[in-house]
Records
---
Amino acid sequence: MLIANINGVNIHYKDEGKSRAPVIAFANSLGSDLRLWDKVVDQLKNDFRIIRYDKRGHGLSDTGNEKCTIKMLADDLAALLNYLKVDQAIICGISVGGMIAQSIAVCHPELVKGLVLCDTGVKIGNDEFWNERISAINENGILAFSDAILDRWFSNQFKADRAIEMEGWRNMLSRIPKAGYIAVCEAIKEADLSEETKIIKIPTLCLTGDEDLSTPPELVEELAAMIEGAKFKLIEGAGHLPCIEKPEIVAKHLNEFARENGYV
């Protein structure tokens, strides 16, 4: 187990793959830990150095006592990369991880070689949506709300064919500390990155599942249109987490993106 004290909180991370290869750093969604990328990493670890971590309030990382913001989460990732002596990385983030990736590209551009933004946007949801979720989880806990969350995470085919696996992801979700989950909900609710993201000049690829109910394809396509030169790719037969449902396709897009931009 690898733990580093980053900005006053203990952060759990993994550092694997080829030590002298180009780096890909992965940022997770709300309610998930670094296992989200297992099958994607399996496809990439022979050609890249892979950094994964549990953002504060998730997995094995501390929650911390400060109010959580997207910039704080981006600063955590930047500090982790500095701790690991990573000069530059492709940052691949999904959902709130994609917001973290956008923020690090604006606040710490020297660390970012390229961006892969999965199933995300400059703003996700509205105050009413997040207030209802926060209230429900405060009152009854994450497990009681897990059906609604999983329904938005996965495609209809996944829910029909991989029901046992889905229960494993439910266990991961429900064991996230409630305080950590709610803290990141508040960060997402307050975040609007539309002005910051417009200034990004880094090569960017935007990916999304065609059955994503949380960040629908049109939201991700709008994000791509805001970033100069960004490309948009739709992943068929996937919901909000194509890294789980279609890991080979996500890995293929990452590999192609790295090669097209001369990173390998």
---
Amino acid sequence: MSRWCQAGEAPGQEVVGSYHHEVLPAGPCSIHVFQTEFSQPGWRITTTLGKDGNFGVATLTDQVKGLPPAIGRPVAAINGDFFDTSEDYGGGPRDLQIFQGQLVRSPAGHACFWLDTFGKPHLTNLVSQCRILLANGQSIPFELNVARPADGCVLYTPVLGATTRTSGGTELILAGGSDDACQPLRAASHLTAKVREVKTGGNSPLRPGTMVLSLGPKLMARLPAIGAGAQLEIFTDTVPSLAGVETAIGGGPTLVRDGQAMHWSGINVRTPRAAIGWNQKQFFLVEVDGRQKSSAGMSFPEFANYLVKLGCENALNLDGGGSSTLWVQGKVVNSPSEGRERSSANAVVIVQQPRGTPEK
């Protein structure tokens, strides 16, 4: 069975894409697809964060509702990356995320999707070269908005929430080097920051216009004393570079590369799946229901092969299982395995932009 319908159509607006529901007898498998043409004007791809623009979890429906109206009218969305489920850092994305141009999570080594400044999609593993340069020339690598180890360095921004949620160590409250507010952090940037205050004990507040550099006690023992008024340089480089990138999200594994389905050894379990995919002309959001009599789900090989047949030349797996959700034109169109939407940390959203907005 197969059903297609147009999506994104409103008075005076173009059709942004189409929704397709297909049921395969083998399995059986219930598959939901939204696709759009890159040449279609007036749309863009963005990401969300789970809790009103901050780290946390919420249903896909609520994440879409929370997008600022200025971004455009949401047309379709799919759940995003795997995420931290710990008590202190629950809702933090597992890997890279750039949210409306703001770098909120540094690369962690998994496959990631990102759009360059020309709107071209990429599927790569990224290497973080994020680092702090001290006044004495010493360079310290850092991660962004994650749990800080005793011998590590983590930079926290207000997108994490009210506090750093750390325990112990030394924390440097940072502001712009000229007493200006620290700008929203972007990838491939070089900032000069001034230490406004030095705190010990952890769990420092995160306020708009500031960032907090948290240094673990084992690391701090190897560093020179850093006092209020000191200046630091912050580099947010990656390989490949993400200069100018407005949208990026992690996932994994890669399912399709250059038109070829990837291969896996060992046992591959059928389960609900979610993915984004594309070719030279089209972009796809794809969800497979599972753990139900009406749909068993797919294994990685089955899912990858289906995506190739669909026309994907590249495809990235997203969080699956109970998180697998596809939203189109104001409603969830699939059947989540838990019988309802499960909260997740982020999402990929296709929005229709207001007339006169520059092309993606």
---
Amino acid sequence: MSNILKAFINITHDYQVNIQTLTHGNNRANNMGEGLEAYIKDMFAGTSHEPNEQKKLEIFEKLYSYQGNKNNPPDLMLKNSDAIEIKKLESKNSAIALNSSYPKAKLYANSPMITKACKACEDWSVKDMLYAIGYVKQSNLKSLWLVYGDCFCAEKETYERIKDTISNGINTIADVEFTETKELGKVKKVDPLGITDLRIRGMWHIENPNKIFSYIYEYDESKDFQLICLMTRDKYDSFSSEDREDVESLGVDGVEVLDVKVKSPDNPVKLMDAKLLVFRV
């Protein structure tokens, strides 16, 4: 079974990458988003240099329980472990577009925003949400944040309260026909002829980790590549002692393993114990 610590070690040994030259099977990635997803998938699986495509697929099957797409988050789910959402940025400080999916500290199996295949891929009810946020410049991966949702996303009730208030307000509009939807609302037959429909979608954005966590990490313009992993101390301690020792004894220049405190997403005056893993080169 893989995890963020194993991926961290794999990336320190294989960080230089041109995103658009990566391939899915025998096909070159169509865009940098696909290339970043292929890179993340390989880093958790340790398959970046596996030439045999059949063997690579067999490793993926053992490791992952689900792979989504841009319309159906999450992008990946590790068996009996984390859900992974992958976001590509072309500016190091730009906000992250989450589209209709609000920020998630955890992923719940009863969420209406995930597919039946995702719900049924294994026996699960809740997973930790890991965001993989890559900054790509001229096809080269310049930085990668691997940060857990519970380090910066509030509890789901915070977002659902806003979503439900908007949806309920839309449903009070008189003399129009509504239909059930996973979006904020869908109005049927808006005009007298009954030929116009209106879809109301949420477009969620969240700040870049470089801004959110500027008080514990400063982006270094002089470096070719930066990897930043952030998790609560409880999450870090949940990994095996062997995996933690492997990271802490990693003899690679530019690696730091730091104890930090981060603001609680639900109450910023409270600080949470966290672990920050950094690789800069």
